[in-house]
Amino acid sequence: MGADDKLEAKGDELKGKVKEGVGNATNDEGLRAEGQADQTKGHLKEAVEKVKDAFK
Description:
Blueprint: H1 3-26, H2 29-54
């Protein structure tokens, strides 16, 4: 897994956790859902990179 790709995936996950936390604190369902989507995006990017690495 490339270092840049790994950092990007972790960044998406962190950004999503922050958004979800702010959404929870402010009772903002839209922000909470956006945060969860960002976390999912980060997890998917990580999974894709692991599959790529498996075929190298």
